[in-house]
Amino acid sequence: MNDHSVTSDHERVRKTVRDSYAKIAAEGGNFGCCGPASSCCGPAPEVAIPSAKEMSAFFGYSDDEMSAVPEGANLGLGCGNPQAIADMLPGDIVVDLGSGAGFDAFLAAGKVGPWGRVIGIDMTHEMLAKARANAVKGGYENVEFRLGEIEHLPVADGEADVVISNCVINLSPNKPQVLREVYRVLRKGGRVAISDVVATQPFPDDFLDDDHLLSGCVTGASLIDDLRAWLEDAGFSRIRIDVKEDSRAGIAQWAPGRGVENYVVSAIITAQKPTGCGCGTSCR
After folding, report:
1. Whole domain around residue 98: which residue ranges?
2. Structural domain includes residue 179
3. Which segments within the chain are labelled E, that is strand?
4. pLDDT classification of 7: cutoffs 50, 70, 90
5. How far apart are CA 1 and CA 122, in angstroms?
6. Can you tell me the mean pLDDT for 245-269?
7. How are beta strands 264-272 and 237-244 bridged, if at all?
8. Between vectors from CA 218 to CA 240 and to CA 252, what angle results, nearest 5°?
9. Does residue 59 sit within a domain?
10. Which pLDDT belongs to residue 10?
Protein backbone atom coordinates (compact mmCIF):
# COMPACT_ATOMS: atom_id res chain seq x y z
CA MET A 1 0.00 0.00 0.00
CA ASN A 2 1.50 3.38 -0.99
CA ASP A 3 1.68 6.44 1.25
CA HIS A 4 -1.33 8.08 -0.40
CA SER A 5 -3.46 4.97 0.15
CA VAL A 6 -2.37 4.75 3.79
CA THR A 7 -3.22 8.42 4.37
CA SER A 8 -6.62 8.02 2.71
CA ASP A 9 -7.41 4.95 4.80
CA HIS A 10 -6.39 6.74 8.00
CA GLU A 11 -8.61 9.70 7.15
CA ARG A 12 -11.53 7.37 6.43
CA VAL A 13 -11.12 5.78 9.85
CA ARG A 14 -10.92 9.16 11.58
CA LYS A 15 -14.06 10.37 9.80
CA THR A 16 -15.95 7.22 10.78
CA VAL A 17 -14.97 7.66 14.42
CA ARG A 18 -15.52 11.43 14.44
CA ASP A 19 -19.00 11.14 12.92
CA SER A 20 -20.01 8.42 15.36
CA TYR A 21 -18.94 10.33 18.47
CA ALA A 22 -20.32 13.62 17.20
CA LYS A 23 -23.68 11.86 16.99
CA ILE A 24 -23.33 10.54 20.54
CA ALA A 25 -22.47 14.03 21.80
CA ALA A 26 -25.43 15.57 20.00
CA GLU A 27 -28.05 12.91 20.71
CA GLY A 28 -26.86 11.32 23.94
CA GLY A 29 -26.65 7.64 24.71
CA ASN A 30 -23.72 5.47 25.68
CA PHE A 31 -23.41 3.33 22.57
CA GLY A 32 -21.91 3.65 19.15
CA CYS A 33 -23.76 2.71 16.00
CA CYS A 34 -23.91 -0.99 16.82
CA GLY A 35 -25.47 -0.55 20.24
CA PRO A 36 -28.59 -2.51 21.23
CA ALA A 37 -30.91 0.32 20.21
CA SER A 38 -29.43 0.67 16.73
CA SER A 39 -30.85 -0.58 13.48
CA CYS A 40 -27.76 0.15 11.38
CA CYS A 41 -26.46 -3.38 11.86
CA GLY A 42 -29.77 -5.14 11.60
CA PRO A 43 -32.80 -5.39 13.87
CA ALA A 44 -32.15 -4.36 17.45
CA PRO A 45 -32.17 -7.37 19.77
CA GLU A 46 -34.78 -7.56 22.48
CA VAL A 47 -32.46 -6.72 25.36
CA ALA A 48 -32.45 -4.11 28.07
CA ILE A 49 -30.09 -1.26 27.25
CA PRO A 50 -27.67 -0.57 30.12
CA SER A 51 -27.44 3.07 31.14
CA ALA A 52 -24.23 5.07 31.13
CA LYS A 53 -24.11 4.71 34.91
CA GLU A 54 -24.57 0.94 34.75
CA MET A 55 -21.82 0.55 32.14
CA SER A 56 -19.44 2.77 34.12
CA ALA A 57 -20.15 0.84 37.31
CA PHE A 58 -19.43 -2.43 35.51
CA PHE A 59 -16.06 -1.10 34.35
CA GLY A 60 -14.95 0.02 37.80
CA TYR A 61 -16.30 3.47 38.69
CA SER A 62 -17.72 4.00 42.16
CA ASP A 63 -21.00 5.73 42.94
CA ASP A 64 -19.02 8.57 44.53
CA GLU A 65 -17.00 9.08 41.33
CA MET A 66 -20.07 9.10 39.13
CA SER A 67 -21.92 11.54 41.36
CA ALA A 68 -18.92 13.89 41.62
CA VAL A 69 -19.12 15.15 38.03
CA PRO A 70 -21.73 17.34 36.29
CA GLU A 71 -24.73 15.59 34.80
CA GLY A 72 -24.00 14.64 31.21
CA ALA A 73 -20.23 14.25 31.67
CA ASN A 74 -20.43 10.48 32.02
CA LEU A 75 -21.51 8.98 28.71
CA GLY A 76 -20.63 5.39 29.66
CA LEU A 77 -18.14 5.07 26.80
CA GLY A 78 -15.19 3.64 28.72
CA CYS A 79 -13.89 0.12 29.21
CA GLY A 80 -12.16 0.62 32.55
CA ASN A 81 -11.24 3.27 35.10
CA PRO A 82 -7.83 4.87 34.49
CA GLN A 83 -8.27 6.94 37.66
CA ALA A 84 -7.77 3.80 39.71
CA ILE A 85 -4.32 3.12 38.26
CA ALA A 86 -2.90 6.57 37.54
CA ASP A 87 -1.50 7.42 41.02
CA MET A 88 -2.13 11.13 40.44
CA LEU A 89 -0.62 13.53 42.94
CA PRO A 90 -1.55 17.08 43.94
CA GLY A 91 0.10 19.47 41.51
CA ASP A 92 0.39 16.95 38.66
CA ILE A 93 -0.30 17.94 35.06
CA VAL A 94 -2.51 15.31 33.46
CA VAL A 95 -3.32 14.84 29.78
CA ASP A 96 -6.51 12.91 28.94
CA LEU A 97 -6.54 11.42 25.43
CA GLY A 98 -10.01 11.44 23.88
CA SER A 99 -11.58 13.33 26.77
CA GLY A 100 -15.14 13.19 25.43
CA ALA A 101 -17.63 15.04 27.63
CA GLY A 102 -15.03 15.39 30.39
CA PHE A 103 -15.80 12.55 32.81
CA ASP A 104 -12.23 11.37 33.48
CA ALA A 105 -10.78 14.88 33.19
CA PHE A 106 -13.08 16.15 35.94
CA LEU A 107 -12.24 13.24 38.23
CA ALA A 108 -8.55 13.86 37.61
CA ALA A 109 -9.03 17.54 38.46
CA GLY A 110 -10.11 16.58 41.95
CA LYS A 111 -6.97 14.52 42.46
CA VAL A 112 -4.41 17.05 41.21
CA GLY A 113 -6.05 19.90 43.09
CA PRO A 114 -5.90 23.65 42.43
CA TRP A 115 -2.12 23.58 41.86
CA GLY A 116 -2.43 20.85 39.24
CA ARG A 117 -3.90 20.99 35.77
CA VAL A 118 -5.81 18.66 33.45
CA ILE A 119 -5.69 18.97 29.65
CA GLY A 120 -8.36 17.08 27.74
CA ILE A 121 -7.77 16.38 24.06
CA ASP A 122 -10.57 15.49 21.63
CA MET A 123 -10.95 15.72 17.85
CA THR A 124 -14.75 16.05 17.90
CA HIS A 125 -16.08 19.60 18.04
CA GLU A 126 -19.38 18.43 19.52
CA MET A 127 -17.65 16.62 22.37
CA LEU A 128 -15.43 19.62 23.07
CA ALA A 129 -18.47 21.90 23.28
CA LYS A 130 -20.13 19.47 25.68
CA ALA A 131 -17.00 19.15 27.84
CA ARG A 132 -16.43 22.90 28.01
CA ALA A 133 -20.05 23.48 29.01
CA ASN A 134 -19.71 20.83 31.70
CA ALA A 135 -16.50 22.48 32.97
CA VAL A 136 -18.36 25.77 33.39
CA LYS A 137 -21.28 24.00 35.04
CA GLY A 138 -18.96 22.27 37.51
CA GLY A 139 -16.71 25.27 38.15
CA TYR A 140 -13.52 23.45 37.09
CA GLU A 141 -10.85 26.13 36.85
CA ASN A 142 -7.95 23.69 36.54
CA VAL A 143 -9.30 21.86 33.46
CA GLU A 144 -9.06 22.88 29.81
CA PHE A 145 -10.12 21.10 26.65
CA ARG A 146 -8.16 21.37 23.40
CA LEU A 147 -9.10 20.36 19.88
CA GLY A 148 -6.65 17.86 18.44
CA GLU A 149 -5.94 14.37 17.21
CA ILE A 150 -4.17 12.03 19.58
CA GLU A 151 -1.61 11.27 16.86
CA HIS A 152 -0.59 14.97 16.99
CA LEU A 153 -1.13 16.21 20.52
CA PRO A 154 -1.42 19.98 21.05
CA VAL A 155 0.79 19.69 24.13
CA ALA A 156 4.39 20.84 24.66
CA ASP A 157 7.32 18.45 25.02
CA GLY A 158 7.73 17.16 28.57
CA GLU A 159 4.68 19.03 29.87
CA ALA A 160 2.75 16.17 31.48
CA ASP A 161 3.29 14.11 34.61
CA VAL A 162 0.58 11.60 33.71
CA VAL A 163 -1.23 10.63 30.51
CA ILE A 164 -4.54 8.81 30.86
CA SER A 165 -6.96 7.42 28.29
CA ASN A 166 -10.12 5.37 28.41
CA CYS A 167 -11.00 3.16 25.43
CA VAL A 168 -9.71 5.66 22.87
CA ILE A 169 -6.33 4.55 21.53
CA ASN A 170 -7.97 1.52 19.91
CA LEU A 171 -9.83 3.98 17.67
CA SER A 172 -6.65 5.43 16.21
CA PRO A 173 -5.52 4.25 12.77
CA ASN A 174 -1.87 4.90 13.78
CA LYS A 175 -1.32 3.62 17.30
CA PRO A 176 2.51 3.63 17.21
CA GLN A 177 2.36 7.37 16.43
CA VAL A 178 -0.02 7.92 19.37
CA LEU A 179 2.40 6.23 21.74
CA ARG A 180 5.34 8.23 20.40
CA GLU A 181 3.34 11.39 21.05
CA VAL A 182 2.51 10.24 24.59
CA TYR A 183 6.23 9.67 25.19
CA ARG A 184 7.05 13.13 23.83
CA VAL A 185 4.63 15.06 26.05
CA LEU A 186 5.61 13.24 29.25
CA ARG A 187 8.38 14.54 31.46
CA LYS A 188 11.18 12.12 32.42
CA GLY A 189 9.70 9.67 34.89
CA GLY A 190 6.18 10.49 33.69
CA ARG A 191 3.53 7.81 33.82
CA VAL A 192 0.98 6.25 31.48
CA ALA A 193 -2.32 4.87 32.80
CA ILE A 194 -4.59 3.55 30.07
CA SER A 195 -7.77 1.50 30.04
CA ASP A 196 -8.41 0.08 26.60
CA VAL A 197 -9.47 -3.01 24.71
CA VAL A 198 -7.00 -5.51 23.30
CA ALA A 199 -7.58 -8.30 20.81
CA THR A 200 -7.10 -11.86 22.01
CA GLN A 201 -7.35 -13.40 18.54
CA PRO A 202 -7.61 -12.16 14.93
CA PHE A 203 -11.01 -10.83 13.83
CA PRO A 204 -13.19 -12.61 11.25
CA ASP A 205 -13.59 -10.89 7.88
CA ASP A 206 -17.19 -9.83 8.52
CA PHE A 207 -16.03 -7.89 11.60
CA LEU A 208 -13.26 -6.13 9.68
CA ASP A 209 -15.71 -5.05 6.97
CA ASP A 210 -18.00 -3.39 9.53
CA ASP A 211 -17.12 0.25 10.26
CA HIS A 212 -19.62 0.29 13.10
CA LEU A 213 -17.55 -2.25 15.00
CA LEU A 214 -14.56 0.04 14.55
CA SER A 215 -16.24 3.10 16.07
CA GLY A 216 -17.77 0.78 18.68
CA CYS A 217 -14.31 0.03 20.12
CA VAL A 218 -14.00 -3.51 18.77
CA THR A 219 -12.02 -4.03 15.58
CA GLY A 220 -9.51 -1.27 16.29
CA ALA A 221 -8.17 -3.32 19.20
CA SER A 222 -4.55 -4.43 18.83
CA LEU A 223 -3.02 -7.77 19.72
CA ILE A 224 -1.20 -7.61 23.07
CA ASP A 225 2.21 -8.45 21.60
CA ASP A 226 1.86 -5.64 19.05
CA LEU A 227 0.88 -3.12 21.70
CA ARG A 228 3.80 -4.10 23.91
CA ALA A 229 6.22 -3.79 20.98
CA TRP A 230 4.92 -0.31 20.09
CA LEU A 231 5.34 0.84 23.70
CA GLU A 232 8.90 -0.46 23.75
CA ASP A 233 9.70 1.12 20.40
CA ALA A 234 8.39 4.47 21.68
CA GLY A 235 10.90 4.26 24.54
CA PHE A 236 8.76 3.25 27.51
CA SER A 237 9.90 1.08 30.41
CA ARG A 238 8.05 -0.74 33.20
CA ILE A 239 5.38 -1.81 30.73
CA ARG A 240 2.45 -3.83 32.07
CA ILE A 241 -0.61 -5.02 30.17
CA ASP A 242 -3.08 -6.70 32.53
CA VAL A 243 -6.05 -8.34 30.83
CA LYS A 244 -9.41 -8.26 32.63
CA GLU A 245 -11.22 -11.42 31.59
CA ASP A 246 -14.33 -10.47 33.57
CA SER A 247 -14.84 -7.50 31.24
CA ARG A 248 -16.13 -9.73 28.43
CA ALA A 249 -19.69 -9.69 29.82
CA GLY A 250 -19.83 -5.91 29.53
CA ILE A 251 -18.17 -5.87 26.11
CA ALA A 252 -20.84 -8.28 24.86
CA GLN A 253 -23.37 -5.46 25.38
CA TRP A 254 -21.61 -3.29 22.78
CA ALA A 255 -22.88 -5.47 19.94
CA PRO A 256 -25.29 -8.08 21.30
CA GLY A 257 -25.41 -11.32 19.39
CA ARG A 258 -22.23 -10.63 17.41
CA GLY A 259 -19.86 -12.49 19.74
CA VAL A 260 -17.44 -9.57 19.99
CA GLU A 261 -16.58 -10.60 23.54
CA ASN A 262 -14.80 -13.65 22.12
CA TYR A 263 -12.28 -11.41 20.37
CA VAL A 264 -11.66 -8.40 22.60
CA VAL A 265 -11.17 -7.84 26.30
CA SER A 266 -10.48 -4.83 28.48
CA ALA A 267 -6.94 -4.31 29.73
CA ILE A 268 -5.06 -2.03 32.08
CA ILE A 269 -1.93 -0.65 30.43
CA THR A 270 0.76 1.11 32.45
CA ALA A 271 4.24 2.30 31.52
CA GLN A 272 6.81 4.93 32.43
CA LYS A 273 9.09 7.29 30.55
CA PRO A 274 12.59 6.51 31.87
CA THR A 275 14.07 9.04 34.29
CA GLY A 276 17.43 9.04 32.56
CA CYS A 277 19.04 8.51 35.96
CA GLY A 278 22.13 6.38 36.19
CA CYS A 279 25.55 6.26 37.74
CA GLY A 280 26.85 9.70 38.63
CA THR A 281 23.47 11.40 38.31
CA SER A 282 21.04 12.49 40.99
CA CYS A 283 17.28 12.07 40.72
CA ARG A 284 14.34 12.90 42.87
Report:
1. 3-272
2. yes
3. 93-97, 117-122, 143-147, 160-166, 186-199, 222-223, 237-244, 264-272
4. low
5. 29
6. 89
7. antiparallel
8. 100
9. yes
10. 64
| pLDDT tens track for 177-199 | 999 999 999 999 999 999 999 99
Report the CATH number at residue 87. Answer: 3.40.50.150
What pLDDT score was predicted for residue 83?
80
Instruction: Report the C-alpha gap between 254 and 272 in whole angstroms.
Output: 31
What pTM, to 2 d.p., does this model score?
A: 0.85
For the stretch 113-144, pLDDT in tens is 999 999 999 999 989 999 999 999 999 999 99
Q: Give the chain's radius of gyration (CA, Å).
A: 18
Residue 154 to residues 89, 118, 257: CA-CA distances in angstroms?
A: 23, 13, 39
The enclosing H or E element of 248 equals: helix 248-251
Judged against a pLDDT cut of 50, whether residue 45 lies above it is answered with no
- Burial label for 113, CB within 10 Å (0-12, 13-18, 19+), is middle
Count of H-run helices and E-run strands, the chain: 10, 8
Q: Which residues are CB-neighbours of 17 under 8 A, at least 6 positions away?
A: 171, 214, 215
Please state the domain count of the chain: 1
Q: What is the DSSP letter of 229?
A: H
Q: Which residue has the higher pLDDT, 104 or 48?
A: 104
Counting beta carbons within 10 angstroms of the beta carbon of residue 231, is it exposed (0 to 12), middle (13 to 18) or buried (19 or more)?
buried
